[in-house]
Specification:
alpha/beta, 6-stranded parallel sheet, two-stranded antiparallel sheet
């Protein structure tokens, strides 16, 4: 039926009962009764409304789970009402060759309808353009309110699945099966979902929880050493901000060799011990925001300016070291804090300095797109020392504004340190 036709209500015949009732209604006096509260058209009226929606995620950590899911596992993945619905498995080209068909077959064997969607590997795939293409593909295939999207992959796949589930039908079920170290300690462990734009990283996003997050540390043994260390950088971030003993454990045991399942399992466990409380913590305390964001204002800018030649954790390692330089410049920390950052990242074979051929001006310009940038200044969390985040003595806030001249000087000092190292 054409749209306009759908709005037309045929008038009943004059002799119909409906018409008689309508005429009676027209004769009713519309003056409000004394029990109805009215106001003058000249009086301003204001309303407010709010609704609190709980965001809950459950995490399962179990080595050897992927490819050997127990009976009934996918009933938990798709939920009690998900059996009749069409579902989707989102992965990337690399993970697809390793696990895509295996996981899809297990889903089908469990009696669920599921279609596989495959992104090209790499950060460049986390784009608004790919997001729109996936939306069209999913809607064309068909979905309903009980559709689940399962992400099978690392951070890029996790974030894209999160954006899709957070926006399709204004929110559908999301499940992560994490296959990278970055995913297992950081990307999947949050409510934040986002895609990149030409202006910077994670600029278009939403808050949407995964119902279930599946972590199998053994699958990270298929990753390159560089990729594993890239993920561990985020574990180091939490240790630098929250627990020096955990930092010592990571550096001592991960300095030479990271492809050890006991080590990887413990890094995941120890990182979650630190990160999960920040997600459960009060929104009013910005410690819970600034810890996960340590080094990210600068790191995201460096990652973007490098055209993603730097992996996320590598860029964040540089961002953390520059943040230590800022803390020293502001008198918040002693110079030894910078030395400690350099020592840790060097030991873990992670970069810590802005490359000599990278434009500081471009980094400074890109920082303007950081989500904590306002009133013409970036805001960052800084450390007093390893394990202790700075709080402003008056506002008690961890995020503080950083003058651009301080930021520029810290970037240049860091770059010069790298050149002379």
């Amino acid at each position: 039926m054409p749209y306009n036709e759908a709005l037309v209500v045929p008038a009943p015949a004059d002799n119909s009962e409906t018409t008689t009732q309508a005429k009676k209604a027209e004769s009713v006096n519309v003056t409000p009764s004394s029990s109805v509260e009215t106001s003058s058209p000249d009086s301003p009226i204001q309303y407010s409304f709010s609704r609190k929606k709980a965001m809950d995620s459950n995490i399962v950590v179990e080595s050897g789970l992927v490819g050997h899911f127990p009976e009934g596992f996918f009933d938990r993945v798709f939920g009690p009402e998900g059996r009749p619905s069409q579902h989707f498995l989102l992965t990337d080209s690399r993970v697809n060759t390793l696990y895509g068909d295996v996981v899809l077959e297990e889903i089908h064997s469990s009696g669920y309808r599921c279609e596989k969607l495959v992104l090209p590997e790499g950060e460049a795939s986390k784009s608004v353009e790919n997001y729109c293409k996936l939306v069209e593909s999913i809607l064309h295939t068909g979905m309903d309110k009980k559709t689940t999207i399962v992400s099978l992959g690392g951070g890029v796949v996790n974030n894209m699945a999160g954006m899709l589930t957070g926006t399709l039908y204004r929110g559908i079920r999301l499940v992560h099966i994490c296959t990278s170290m970055m995913s297992q300690v950081d990307a999947a462990i949050d409510f934040k979902q986002a895609v990149n734009t030409c202006y910077g990283k994670n600029l278009v996003g939403a808050y949407h929880p995964a119902s279930l997050i599946v972590i199998d540390p053994s699958v990270t043994l298929t990753q390159s050493e560089r990729d594993v260390r890239n993920g561990i950088s985020e574990s180091i971030k939490h240790a630098l901000c929250q627990d020096e003993a955990i930092l010592e454990y990571i550096v001592k045991n991960g300095r030479e060799h990271v492809h050890d399942i006991e080590f990887l399992h413990n890094v995941v466990k120890l990182t979650l011990d630190l990160k999960v409380p920040t997600l459960n913590g009060a929104v009013s305390d910005d410690f819970n925001e600034m810890v996960p964001q340590y080094g990210h204002c600068i790191g995201h800018a460096i990652e973007h300016v490098s055209k993603y030649d730097f992996l996320h954790g590598e860029a964040i390692a540089i961002g953390m070291t520059v943040s230590a330089e800022i803390a020293v410049a502001l008198g918040i920390a002693k110079p030894e804090l910078v030395d400690r950052h350099i020592e840790v990242f060097s030991s873990m074979k992670l970069p810590w300095s802005v490359p000599s051929d990278m434009s500081i001006e471009q980094v400074l310009e890109t920082v303007k797109y950081d989500k904590h940038f306002f009133n013409s200044l970036p805001r960052m969390g800084l450390l007093v020392e390893v394990g202790t985040m700075y709080r402003h003595p008056e506002t008690h806030q961890c995020g503080i504004p950083i003058d651009y001249d301080v930021l520029e000087k810290a970037l240049r000092v860091n770059q010069q340190r790298g050149e002379s190292a």
